[in-house]
Design a protein that fits this description.
Aminotransferase_I/II_large; PyrdxlP-dep_Trfase_small; seven-stranded mixed sheet; two-stranded parallel ribbon; EC 2.6.1.1; 15 strands; globular; pyridoxal phosphate binding; pyridoxal phosphate; binds pyridoxal-5'-phosphate
Length: about 400
């Protein structure tokens, strides 16, 4: 038999399946709270005004062409991307302890990091275990499993408080074998919207240091979460200042609205040591080999757009303004949803809607309630009760609040 005869049918990706079902729904009141992409108050994709300007600059650049980028990507992007994460003038950058590679957005960065750790971070020839938060972005499971890294989970979400299960998380990290890899969402945790406080981050760092754990940061929402780029990088900067050796997967999909352009970076940061720069050079050389065999070199268009903005003082300031527009609208929608539910006297506590941050909120709706809100009200969300706040707007918020009220009663 042809080898493919034995290939079983794979299930459809749940999120993309949800998107398909939403598109096929003919009801005029339908609401998409599934997909993790920003929408404006008219429920339309928003091209950032600063991205339009950068696009214009790019189109009028007589030097622009369609040549290949180097294996490590566009240097004017990767250098600024590292600064964005670690801060301008960060000692790690000045001491050449950072190796940066442009990737296929955040997903490609997580994958490159996974591949790198699968190859080089072993004990007696075996891969170390990676701990994911429970829950986490579903793709994390697939990406790390694909490269043969064993996965465990640490508790994260407390169903009762709809906040962080901090004690459970700490106990799990304390019980993990020394030198495990711990995946941490830098800000705006997906899917829960629940982040540790700065004080909790300090405790996590202390615990991880004592256990010699290896931090793997995933940052897909810098600036998009709070509207403040520095604040959203706070956890990463703290860990770097604490002298951790770590890696960071960085996406520009959400904060630049460059979803389909696949712009992102992977960074390795070495701890301070006399040979740190040499170690970093060696790591960069291996990342280049991995990148070459995977994608050869990364895509150029989105990288140029982001680079133009990051390298120009005025455009950078405008970008910050655009970030505040997006995060501000989302925060306003959180407040509106919470107050409408409280006005309606909807059973339960709704403070978590405004306590959580970023694109998503874990509503606490059960799978049966999610089914009901979809069949009765044509409101689409993932079956774990996660809603994308960006799908809410001044036109549909009342409708959504009333629908939630109906299904929880
Ligand atoms: N990591 C997390 C936690 C995410 O939420 C996302 C996107 O939803 C990504 C990574 C990667 O997204 P992209 O590949 O579009 O940059």
């Amino acid at each position: 038999n042809f080898p493919a005869e034995a290939v079983p049918q794979a299930p459809e990706d749940p999120l993309f399946g949800l998107m398909r079902a939403y598109k096929a729904d003919q009801n005029p009141d339908k609401v998409d709270l599934g997909i993790g992409a920003y929408r404006d108050d008219n429920a339309k994709p928003w091209v950032l005004p600063v991205v339009k300007k950068a696009d214009e600059i790019l189109r009028n650049d007589p030097e622009a062409n369609h040549e290949y980028l180097p294996i490590a990507g566009l240097a004017s992007l990767t250098s600024k991307a590292a600064e964005l994460l670690l801060g301008t003038g960060a000692p790690a950058i000045a001491e050449k302890r950072v190796a940066s590679v442009q990737t296929i957005s955040g997903t490609g960065a997580v994958h490159l990091g996974a591949l790198f750790l699968a190859r080089f971070y072993k004990v007696n020839g075996a891969n170390r275990t990676l701990y994911l938060s429970n829950p986490t972005w579903a793709n994390h499971h697939q990406i790390f499993t694909n490269v043969g890294i064993p996965i465990e989970q640490y508790p994260y979400f407390d169903k009762k408080t709809k906040g962080l299960d901090f004690e459970g998380m700490k106990a799990s990290l304390a019980n993990a074998p020394d030198r495990s890899i711990i995946l941490l969402h830098a800000c705006a945790h997906n899917p829960t919207g629940v982040d540790p406080t700065p004080e909790q981050w300090r405790e996590i760092a202390e615990l991880m240091k004592a256990k010699k754990h290896f931090p793997f940061f995933d940052t897909a929402y810098q600036g998009f979460a709070s509207g403040d780029l520095d604040r959203d990088a706070g956890a990463i900067r703290y860990f770097v200042e604490q002298g951790f050796e770590l890696v960071i997967a960085q996406s520009f999909a959400k904060n630049f609205g460059l979803y389909g352009e696949r712009a992102g970076c992977f960074h390795f940061v070495a701890p301070p040591a006399p040979d740190a720069a040499e170690v970093t050079t060696r790591v960069a050389s291996q990342l280049a080999i991995l990148q070459r065999s995977e994608i050869s070199n990364p895509p150029i268009y989105g990288a140029r757009i982001a680079s133009i903005v990051l390298n120009d003082k005025d455009l950078f300031a405008e970008w910050q303004e655009n970030l505040r527009t997006m995060s501000g609208r989302i925060i306003a929608m959180r407040q509106a949803l919470r107050s409408k539910l409280e006005e309606l006297g909807t059973p339960g506590q709704w403070n978590h809607i405004t306590d959580q941050i970023g694109m998503f909120s874990f509503t606490g709706l059960s799978e049966a309630q999610v089914q009901k809100i979809r069949s009765d009200f044509h409101i689409y969300m993932t079956k774990n009760g996660r809603i994308s706040m960006a799908g809410l707007n001044t036109r549909n918020i009342e409708y959504v609040a009333k629908a939630i009220d109906r299904v929880v009663r």
